Amino acid sequence: MGSLGDASAVRKSVLPNGIRVLTEALPEFTSATLGIWVENGSAYEPPELNGISHFLEHIFFKGTERRTAKEIAEAIDGVGGVLNAFTGKEYTCYYAKVLREDLPLALDVLSDLFLHSTFLEEEIERERGVILSEILESEDSPDDHVHMVFDRAFWPGHPLSLPITGTAQTVSGMKREHFLRFLSERYRPDRILVCAAGAVDHDWLVDRIGQAFGHLSGTTPKVTTVTPAAKPALSLIERDLEQVQMVLGVPGLPHTDDRRYAAYVMNTALGGGMSSRLFQEVREKRGKAYSIASFLSAFRGAGYLAVNAGLGSDAVVEVLEVVRDELGKLMREGLERHELERAKSQIKGTILLSLESSESRMSRIAKNEMYFGRNIDPAEVAAAISGVVHGDVVDLSRELFSGRMSVALLGDVSEVAIDDALLSPA
Q1: What's the CA gap between 255 and 300, in Å, rounded?
Q2: Contact at 8 Å (CB) between 360 and 196?
Q3: Catalytic residue positions?
């Protein structure tokens, strides 16, 4: 394999107010990606304000004391860069990717929108309409909507079950004072990371962040979180669609669980690509779905392993049988040697390819800091993947697949009959 990176290239400094600055300097890169991360997302929102983190992310781009929304966009577009943001369940990120010589501009724009946004009433109302349209679009998109149905049924009543965008009801009720109060409470220095990767100088960035962000103070009030209890559920949502969208899953591992490497290998072999068991059996051998894949969702205290597919209503029961049987085979037999080794190579190859992107590297060092409090370099991950053995996969499979699966189906499901025996791997 090629080089998996140099851990010494990642540096971390903590400003006096608690803001963490992390960089991975890669002088050979022509680009740099800079991100301002906040350890805050929909999992930390009260139910009545579900979606406020995502709404707030949008408003940051709608004008500052120095720039209009158009001028914010023009500043980075004008140098061929990328300016964007995203909100997850446990974090929000505002980032820019630019050429090395444009990094000072990117820092100026990001700092400006993060620290000096005006939150004008007319901009809030305009963006409310945009987000309501986004919510409607996701509800009209079957492959998106079925995941929301699954989450709500899988972790009922827990913040992790709620949509990142919020609902039409919660978004419609949000006022300017809600945003300012939420910002004051949740966007404090102890929850902020500034991360950069690529053509960046660590000392320069620390100095500039200290100048721009040094005035921030305070700490974020602790939010009491409860580990969600998964509830096996069967959700059938009737829609007039050409295909049935399916998600089925079982409780998985939290983000920091030491067994995550075995989970990566198991998931890759099960449904992580065109060579995986599920793709080969369902798509190639039986022709019952255009696509089928498995995936892992992991958070601080919980996670799940799930399978999603789009298929005809007449194939639902057969595909459920295939998934049930494949999970049962993993419990009884694990992976064949060639499958185990291929999955390991596939994961390590994916790691290598991601290292070619300054954006991917920036995201990696940020998530390592948030979840582990230290840098985990790619070589360490590769070594852990290489160390996964047959017994690890069998033991984990038996733990995760021993209960009843949760299933969400969206589409023409009026004639679909799901027997309980289909929902328990054997």
Answers
A1: 6
A2: no
A3: 57
Inter-residue contact 45 to 159 (CB < 8 Å): yes
Contact present, 235 and 162 (Cβ < 8 Å):
no
Q: Which two tokens stand for residue 238?
A: 């009737």
> Residue 386 sits in which domain range?
234-423
Q: Which residues pair with 80 in a beta bridge?
A: none
Contacts of 406 (CB under 8 A, 6+ apart): 150, 153, 154, 230, 231, 232, 233, 234, 248, 249, 250
Q: Which amino acid is at 128?
A: R
Question: How confident is the model over 159-187, as pLDDT tens digits?
Answer: 999 999 999 999 999 999 999 999 999 99
What's 119's domain CATH number? 3.30.830.10
Is the domain of 118 the same as that of 204? Answer: yes
Count of structural domains within the chain: 2
Question: Please, are residues 304 and 250 in contact by the beta-carbon 8 Å criterion?
Answer: yes
pLDDT tens per residue across span 323-354: 999 999 999 999 999 999 999 999 999 999 99
Q: Residue 158: CA atoms inside 13 Å, Cβ hemisphere, count?
A: 21
